[in-house]
Every structure is written in structure tokens, then in C-alpha cells.
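Re: the multi-chain job from yesterday

Posting the exact lines I submitted so nobody has to dig through the queue logs.
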Amino acid sequence: MVGGGPGAMIGAAHRHAMWLDNQYILAAGIFGRDAASSAELAHSLGVERVYDDYRDMAEREADRDDGADVVAVVTPNDTHFEIAKAFLEAGIAVVCEKPLTNDSNTAAELVSIAESRGAILAVPHIYSAYAMVRHAARMVRNGDLGRIRFVAAEHASGWAWAEIDQWRMDPDIGGAAAAVGDVGTHALHLLRYITGLEATRVSAELSTLVPGRQVYDNATMRLTLSNGAPATVWATMAATGHEHGLRIRVFGDDASLEWRHEDPQHLTVRDPGGGSTILAHGMSTLSEDAARLTRVGLGHPDGFLEAFANFYLDLAEILRGQTARELSVPTGVDGLIGVQFVEATVASHAEDAAWVEVALGT
Amino acid sequence: MVGGGPGAMIGAAHRHAMWLDNQYILAAGIFGRDAASSAELAHSLGVERVYDDYRDMAEREADRDDGADVVAVVTPNDTHFEIAKAFLEAGIAVVCEKPLTNDSNTAAELVSIAESRGAILAVPHIYSAYAMVRHAARMVRNGDLGRIRFVAAEHASGWAWAEIDQWRMDPDIGGAAAAVGDVGTHALHLLRYITGLEATRVSAELSTLVPGRQVYDNATMRLTLSNGAPATVWATMAATGHEHGLRIRVFGDDASLEWRHEDPQHLTVRDPGGGSTILAHGMSTLSEDAARLTRVGLGHPDGFLEAFANFYLDLAEILRGQTARELSVPTGVDGLIGVQFVEATVASHAEDAAWVEVALGT
Amino acid sequence: MVGGGPGAMIGAAHRHAMWLDNQYILAAGIFGRDAASSAELAHSLGVERVYDDYRDMAEREADRDDGADVVAVVTPNDTHFEIAKAFLEAGIAVVCEKPLTNDSNTAAELVSIAESRGAILAVPHIYSAYAMVRHAARMVRNGDLGRIRFVAAEHASGWAWAEIDQWRMDPDIGGAAAAVGDVGTHALHLLRYITGLEATRVSAELSTLVPGRQVYDNATMRLTLSNGAPATVWATMAATGHEHGLRIRVFGDDASLEWRHEDPQHLTVRDPGGGSTILAHGMSTLSEDAARLTRVGLGHPDGFLEAFANFYLDLAEILRGQTARELSVPTGVDGLIGVQFVEATVASHAEDAAWVEVALGT
Amino acid sequence: MVGGGPGAMIGAAHRHAMWLDNQYILAAGIFGRDAASSAELAHSLGVERVYDDYRDMAEREADRDDGADVVAVVTPNDTHFEIAKAFLEAGIAVVCEKPLTNDSNTAAELVSIAESRGAILAVPHIYSAYAMVRHAARMVRNGDLGRIRFVAAEHASGWAWAEIDQWRMDPDIGGAAAAVGDVGTHALHLLRYITGLEATRVSAELSTLVPGRQVYDNATMRLTLSNGAPATVWATMAATGHEHGLRIRVFGDDASLEWRHEDPQHLTVRDPGGGSTILAHGMSTLSEDAARLTRVGLGHPDGFLEAFANFYLDLAEILRGQTARELSVPTGVDGLIGVQFVEATVASHAEDAAWVEVALGT
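And the result, C-alpha cells for all chains:
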């Protein structure tokens, strides 16, 4: 692991997720820029090999017979590229936090390096690893909803409802379109994952809801999807009072579905007559995509860490050489698409929210 | 009443609402274009004076000492103007269903006639008459939310999820921007009513979700509000599986609130720390705006007809000559704004969803 | 109407319910013990004939050609018997609030008088008039749940969470088992109405939750139902923080259902696999029992007054001479059963919650 | 670990919970009665030391310098006593699934052995380890609810809604009062943990809801609590259609609270006026008891395994020699109380649900 020093929530989440199924050993890492606190944390975590420099780590881990199979990059956005690049070039698989990088050229370069080196590059859009999101994606692919006619996705969090001093609020580190990069990419990935559709054009209005803030903390987006259907994505970190706010509603000609991260072990399916059916993780009638992710059983709710562990479980399969499942972990291309999406929103915003054609993933 | 013949739900709703508080007597009307069925319905309703022609009705009711104080116009959209005009010119107050007319010139003319004749013109955006919506509006005016920073309103109904043969789906009768006219105007009014803000510009993407349909049954709108805050409005009748789908979330610097028509007697207030408080109609701590609309008490839910009756209660006060309350019934100007909003969305859509400046209500 | 003076909520509810469908004219009444305020209220309600004494009213209304068809008795519990008796003996139908009387002998006498005089006696357990409760009752009769194996009903209101000065808290007027009489009888009726089962034995623990209170404000009851299934009923007015708290869950061998008064237009049906289906009033697939009670349509919620109006609609049919529907208004026998239930709980409580055999309704 | 062979859900849950925080190494075990499959599972789990016999395991692990610090006993109920005894006598800490044993004498003996040997004995009533349950318990201790006046707890699961072939349905293995032992003890512990009150008498009606079943799968219980307040506990595995069904409502003189396992990261607090406040895990204003259990942050829901891991985190502190926190893991005494409760319900049932005095924990 690179990053995830003391107090960094996302690094801690990665670690719990790796441990939960006992499939990973945290053997090496750099836990923040301060060497002393990094070493101290490493010690408390039982990490054997602590490094000061990621290039050094990449090189030496690649050289060891028992070197790291995969490294998690959980540093601030503007450092992702160089760090991920170093490991990929050393042939070590990388899990890199989103946004993959701060511009699409470097993101594409990472994808390219990963391909040429045969190294796996995965991006932890964790929400797609919830069992009920998997089931939703399967339902769409099974045609249970009919043709998709409209999608409304939102990641409207309240975590930064007031000004805070953090790198995500610094445009030079996190990017100006912070709301899109930080949470909008999650909403977009969820939309793409469940529907199997891509955006072909984007219109975005970026705004700053918190007075004095230097980044855009709110974004309302319109998409045209690859099947011609319209969609909306709303992303913000300034939705006062919201806990988390990731939610998606997919409307088909025959039915619609809704999933909310506040209640992740349920999926609501609505039929045209007005009746709603609430499916629960652990039901015996769910698709194998969801059923295989059941650890305890019906009535024992999944939390965020179980979803995160699902991501690492699927990644472990791939690291062991298995072919990725149809509905598996987000890859570098998904990460690239996220970065392209951020750029498209910036471009659209610069033209007063005009439509911008996009060819995501290429 | 003009319109509201056999099977017409909205006409029936008006009647129940008038009766509920025993403040109105339904004394005269034309219940549909078919004279025989109109007479039959009138008879079953105990209506004494049945007419064949609204001009005749307006003239004769105006002449009677015990003539109608107010007439409800619940006919298809394209007839509103002529009918409402006839009654207003006769000095009779009019409750006219939304959209007030099919173009802003005629809507403005109705407002003008009403003013010049001193006749009341009201538009039944009923949702603003729910007690908890009134309380929400009062909270905003009290400053409980701080500065409004973002609003997300939606009226995403599923009632026309598949093609149906109805005048609302005929662009010549209901207008091409059916989703905006039919439900979007409700969402806009709710937004304006609760926040006290107006839109200064609009961007709209209109689309048709149901194959083969002749009108736009889906509209995604961005607004810039008069305080500079961004807002979104989503309107559709083709949200497969939705019961009703009217919902508003208002985000302020200090708190946010949410109201949903599926659970109208509650109002959720969220504080920045992540806690939610659910207020219920009937609580002793509510504002007088909500408290005065309590008929039974805490725990006895309000339905749509109680809200509709609240509209008629407030109207009755005005008809008796009282000054309208601060938070009272929507007027002709509100109706005009709705029509202007429909036109703005059509104009924006014609320019690929470009921003259109608006001066609503003028 | 007898009772329902200024400030009496339940009297007001009756009046709104009668008016809502324009099937009743409030023509005569005594609105409280104070003649002046009664007359004043009558005047404001447009009531033509005001009386001072219910015996006088019964006699004179019976004599008139246009005399009252039905009288609503909404006075304190200890006066129900004499008033209802006077009207029934005069051949006038009576709607009498529950508990019908304060002891089963007098309740049985009212039933007997009503029968011998051919006068209708109805008891407004209003909750059974909600469309979705009707649908639930139909589902059970259709066998959709299979054999009923357990029922949990509760009316756990918070309205009297602290001591208040009111006749319901005076054991001499409202009876000592206030929780059972005031709200427990509603829960019992709902259970009987939905399941079609009677209780054959009862065990009750009565307690006083609010310090210093003179009546039992809490009751936990066990029932054995006529098919042998166990059931529980919890009744209280001292459930701190509860809005209303009427809720029933019925478990069958094949499915279960739940209805809550806080959200009355929905009914949740649970299948054994763990999936829940939420049915909404207005759906086109509901039984005729529910469908016929739709005034506006899907997505326009019913409130308490619509349910109350349903009661009066059904009563109007019976008053016009129609045979009562299979699922219609509660009768005097239902009222008698409520009183017998109160007595059974008192008897059980006297023996430390021992089982008491009951033959309700006989 | 003893038990938790292939397919045993609860054993798997223990393992995930131990791993999640990387505080435990699973070093030794017997995974079911079949030696071959036990060895195979041990191998796949990376367990170094596999045994055939628990006595042998207890002896040899006690002898090793690096022997097990704690063993989890997750076998069928009727084997708990002998296995737990063997390890406790060897001075090894034991986590023993509930019910601790099948009779209170043996349960008391385990408590006694644990004390005399200074070995820790813990019982995984996991639900008390949810952050929001901890917060609820703290609120009660802080006096936020005032005097507790009534408690309604239920664990009404649907997992055994139809007959199944499993040891829990065999009275000789799981005990006749299966509903009380399997789920009722969880509800009782939750009640005791949150309120800090004990039961002083119990009345129970046991019944069999599923035709042909040999055990009581349903139990309705009344308790009198140590402060004199009444309470009810409902326990069943045959609540058709229920997911899990653990829920508690605690009513105080000043407020009430509700927690449901279907939505474990929230806690609803109701004030007498009818307003509800929903608290969420991760809020900055929660008590330290809840705050310290936050791994990711507000909006990232806890699941069952996080709660289970909380149990093991707290246990790890104790194993390291720290004094147990005020609100920490359930102990052997809690397990003994569970068994005494089961016995009290059987005794009450034998007397037609008469009250039975109890002195739980002694």
C-alpha cells in the first residue's frame, strides 16, 4: 500500500477489505509522507517491509520472489499517475483510487502501460461490488426492465457541506471539478455498470455551493446514453445534511429499479402497475452474481466493508489467473472513462453547459 | 363547475374538496360536452342549474342574486382560456386547472382581465396546500435553513408509462411539452412556494420516453434561481413504476429539507451533522401555517383531498373578502408563470438545451 | 349529531366524513352540554334544528317526515348507552363511538333494541374502512396467506404520554381499562376484520405507565384465535413519541402482510423467500373491495377522513336499504365484542393475567 | 475454533469477524465431525494445527507457548458444555455460541470454572456490538429517555417459516423451546444491554406455528423489569416473510428509541411531541461508545460482520489484559442468564403462561 497513513479513512477501508476474507497479507508499504509515522503505523499493522520512496518500493518488491502481487495506491489525486506508473512498469498489479489521474492523457498512459506489461490495473468503484448492485446489473442484462428509457443517478453527499481544509478542496491537487472527480465518477460508474450503457454526450453545469470554496463542489449533468436514452447525474459534496447520497434509479419500458447506498442490501423493483418489490440480499431467488457474495445469510446486512471485500475477492481471482467474471471489478479503462468524464464536464461548463460529444474509454 | 364529467378524476377531486369542509354548495355546472350525461351527473350530484354553454352559464349566473361566487374550470387545456375569460369578464371568480392556458399571452390576458374586473383567479397547485409544505415554506422564510444553495425538485410520475389514448397525449390539445405542462408546473410551483425564489434562466431537454408518443413526456431542467443558486427540475409521466413522484429537496447553508407526496404528512429536516428529524402534521410545535390546517390531530394522516380542501378553505376566506394570507392559494400570476415556464423549456429545447433568460410573472 | 361540541376532534371528524361525499346533510344536533355554545356551533355549521335534550331530539326527529335518518353519538363513554338507546327506540339509526357502552349488558341491550326496532347500529372502527385494509381482508379470505398462524396487532399511541386532564383519564367516565377501551378495541377490531377470526380466550396485563394516572394506560394481551392460532395485542396511549401507532401484522403459512396507519395507502405483503411487495391504493390490480374506494387515483394518498368517509358511504348504502357488503361497516355486535373484550381484560388482570375464556359477540 | 465446518454460516461469520481487523490469527481448530472435510477446510483457511478431538486440542494448545489464546465454540447447542469446559479448564478463553448450554446448572458451572481458572468466557450476542446499539445504551444511562416505562423487543425471523431438517428443530439437540433459545435470547440480551435492567418475573406462551414441527418455534413473553416496568418479548423463527426481525423499542418518560437490525446503522429517537430524530453511525455528535467503532465514516453502512468484528475487537482488548469497558462484550453470566430465561419460559408455559419469578444471573 502507498498512502493510507494515520487518520486516512480510505486507506483503512482498503486494509479492512483485504483482511476480511483472509485473502491478502499486507506485507509492504509507505503509509504517508512522514517516514516516522509511516513506520510506526506499519509496525502496528504488522507490515514487514516499509519504504520511503515508491520507486524504490516498486523496484525492490518486483525483485523479490515473495514481492507484492498488488499494490493499493491511496494517495491524493495528483500523485496517482507517477506512483501507479512505477508499479505497473515494474509489473506489479495496481489498485488505484479514483480519479485515476488528473487528466485523460496520463490515465490512458496507465492503461497502456498496464496492457503492455500485462499488469492488472483496477479502480475501486466499490459500490458496484455490492451484491444487490450486481443483481441489478444482471436484471438489466436479462432484460427484466426492457429497453432502458431513462436513468437518474446521484451522489449527493453532505460530507463537505461547509468549508474544510483538505487536499480535495485544493484545485491544484484534487482538480477544479472536485464534485465530479470525487463523487460524480462513482455515480457515473454505477450507471454504466448497472445499465451496460456508455455516455455519448455530456452537458454539465458546475457550481460552488459553499461560499469561498476554490473548487466546484456541485455538478448537474445531462447525458445521452449509447442507446439514445437521456440520463441525469447529480454530484455534490455540499448537500447539507446528507449522509452519503449515492442513489440510482433506472427506468425501463417494463419496470424500473432503485438502489440507495443508505440501504445497500435491498433493491427496489417497481412494476408499471405501481407495486414495488423489495429484494433483499440473501434471498434464495437472487442471481448467482449476488448469491455468491453472501457471507452470512438473509437478514444479516452487508456493509461498505463487505462490498469493498467483494472487490478484493474478485481481484484475487484475477490475480490468481482466472478470467475476470462478466460483472467484476472496475478496470483501468473504467478509471480512464472517469477522468474523461471529468474533462468533458469541464469542457461543457466552459461553454455554458453546452453539449460535448464524448467517446469514453477510447 | 365546467368540465369534470363522468369519469374525470380531477373534477371529482374538486367536488370532494369543496364539500369536505361544507363551505361550498355545487349549484351550477356543465359536466362534459355531452348534454345528457352532464345533466345526469348534475342530477346525481344534486346540482340545480345545468347549462349547455359556458357563455350562457357565465351570463346567467352573473345575473342571479344567488349566482355562483366561483367556478372551477376543469376542462382540457386548450379550452381553459375562453371559458375562464367568460366567467372572469362576468365578474365571477375562477379556479382554473393548470396549465392556465396554452400560451403566455392568453394567460397574461386572463390575469389582466381578473385584475380589471376585480375577480379572483386561482390555480390549483394543490401540493402547496399540504400542511407540511406550508411548514416547509415557513421554515425557509424563518431562515431555519440559512441561505438556499441548491434545490432539486421532481415530479416523476408513472401514470403514462405506456401509450394511452388521452387528450394530454395530443400535442394540439395538451401542448407538445406535456411533461412540463402536466407535472413540471407542479414541481416548479412547489419550488417557488417553498423557497420564495423565482427562476431567472432555464435550460431544458425535452424527450419522449414512450415509443410512438406525439408529445414530450420527459423533461430535465436546470434553473438559476433569483438568489443565484442552481436548481434542477425533473418532470415526466413515464417513470415506469412510480406512483406519483412529486418530491422536493431544498438545501440551505445550515440545513436541508425534503418533502415527498407519497408521505405528505411528514417533513424531513436534515442537519449538517447527518441527523434527520421527521416532523409530523399535528405536532404541537409546528408553525401556525401548518397547525391551522389540522382537522383531526397528530397521527391521523392528511390525504390529497384534505390538501385540496385546504386550497378551497383559503379561497373561501378570500371570496369572503379577507386579505389573502402570506402563504395562501396560487393565483393567476402563478398560473401565468407556469405557462411561461413551459414556453421557456420549449425555447431552450429548440436550441439544444441552451440557457434561456426568463422574467417569470411579468 | 349528539356531542362534538367546540374543540371535540372526533365530532369534527364525523362531520367532515359525512360531508366529503355529499351524501349527508347535518340537519339536527346537540353539540355539547352548554346550550349556548351548542347553538353557536350549530349555527356556524348551518344546522337547522338544535336541541337541548337527546330524548327530546329523538322523539321529535322521529316524528318529522324529514327527521334524521341517522344520528352520530360522539359523547363521553358513560353516556353512550342512554343516548343511543333513546334514538334506537325511536327507530333512528345510530352511529355510536366506541366503546359502545361501559359494560356488556348495556351493549347487548343496545344490540337487542336495534334488532327489535329494525334500526341500524354502527360503530366507527374507522381503520377497517381504509381501502388497503379492505384489500388485506380480501387477501386473507382469498387464501393468499394460507392458514393464519400468528397475528400481532398494536395500537400504541403517544397521545397521552404525560398526565392530562380529560374524561378518558377518569375511571368513572372512561372506564379503568382505558387503554383497552380507547385504543385496544380498535386493534382488536382490525385483527378480527382482516383475519375473520374471533378470540376464544384472552390474557391481559394492565398497567399504568404514567405516574399518578388513575386508569390503566397500557395493556399487553394474548389471544387464542378461533382457528387455534396465537395472537398478541398491545394497546397504550403512553408510548412516548409515537404518532398514532396502529399497526397489524398477519402471518400465514404462505405469506404475511403488514399495514400501518402512519402510511395507510400502502400494504406490505411478504413472501417466505424474504421479498416484500408494497401494494398501493389506486393500483389497477387491487380487489374490488379496495378499488371502489378510490376517489382520485394512484399516487394521491388517502387520509383518515377519506377512510371515515368510506364508513359513511357504506352506511349510506345500508340506510338506503341495500344489503350490507361482505366487508362493510362495523355493527353493534362489533361494538358489543369490543366491550366484552374490555371486560375480559379486566377479569384476566384481576387474576394476574390468567387466561379467560370468552364467547365474544354472544 | 471448534465447529464451523463447511457450510456452517455462523462459523464463517466468526472467522470473517476475527480477520476484519487483523487482530486474530486462526491457528488451530476442528471444523466439524468429519476429519477429512475438517482438514480440507483447515487447509483452505491456512490453519496450521488441525485436531480430531477437542480434549486433545485443549490440552495441547494449553501446552504450547504459542497456543491459542481463545477458542470459538460454534457447535450445536448440546455439545457446548463439554467443549467449553475442556478449554476453560485448560485455561484457554472461550467464545461460546448461545445458548451457552442446554440447562442452567451446566451454564453456571461454566461460569464458575471460568472464574476459578481466570479464563475469559464470552457469548456472542453480536447485536449489542453495533455502534448504534452502544449509543442507545449510553443514551439510557445518560438519562436521555428518563425513567424506562415500557420495552417491546422482538426477534421475529422468518428463516424457518416451513419445516426444515436441521439440528435446531430437534428438541434433543437444540432444546424444545427453540424460539427462545435460538432468537429469544438475543432479544432478551439486547433489552438488558440497552436498558441496564433485569427481568424479575416472566410469563411465556410457547407455541408451534409450523405444522408437524417438534419444537416450539414461537414464544410470546411478558417480563416485569427490575424497575417495575412491564416489557414484552416476542421470539419466533416462523414469521413468514421476515428477513431477520430483531427490533427493540424502549419507552421512557421523556423520549423513546427504536433500533432495527434491518437498518442497523441508524437509531430513531422519538420525542413526546411526535417528532422523530434519526441518528446515523458516523455522526460527529455520537457518544464515544459508538464513535470508537467507526471504521470508514458517516454514510458508509455497518454490516453484521462489522458488528461481529466489534465484538472481537473488544474481546482482544480484554485478552490483552485491559479492563473490560462499561459497555463491552457479553460474558458467561450473560450466557447463563439466557439459559435461565429459556428455563423460565418453559416453566411458565407448563403452567399455562403463569408468572414465574426469576433471579437471573444468580
